[in-house]
Amino acid sequence: MVVDSNELRKIYENSPFNNLLGIKLAEFEEGKVVYSLETRPSHLNVNQAIHGGVYFTLLDSVMGATIRSVVKLPIVTINTSINYFAPVANGETMLAKAKIIQEGGSIVTAEGTIEDENGHVFAKATGTFKKIRNI
């Protein structure tokens, strides 16, 4: 089901899972999506750093939203590879953005990055997604 950009924005602003984690849609344009997350104690792991699953969720979400903003079709994640570069402390704001690096007929690959407000990179991921045409 193809939907327009305004409908997509609403879908991502109202994502139950993103809202549960506190992920906010900071920017939404075709091909340019930015998520922000102000970290809080519930995001911490046993080492008192932000859990790697939070990084992964943020990257998967921003790559998926960026792709869908362009293809206008539902998508599903096929595979993701992530590299963690630095820990994020409680109270810091994480910013996630992505870009499409390859689009085929049914498969799209994107690269996502998590940074702080000063551009310091915490993690990068590459994700492969499948377009779903029959929903």
Automatic annotation (TrEMBL):
SUPFAM superfamilies, per database record: Thioesterase/thiol ester dehydrase-isomerase (SSF54637)
Keyword field: Hydrolase
Domain Thioesterase: 49-121
Hydrolase listed as a keyword: yes
Entry-linked Pfam families: 4HBT (PF03061)
GO molecular function, one term: fatty acyl-CoA hydrolase activity
UniProt record similarity statement: Belongs to the thioesterase PaaI family.
Protein name (record): PaaI family thioesterase
Organism, as annotated: Neobacillus rhizophilus
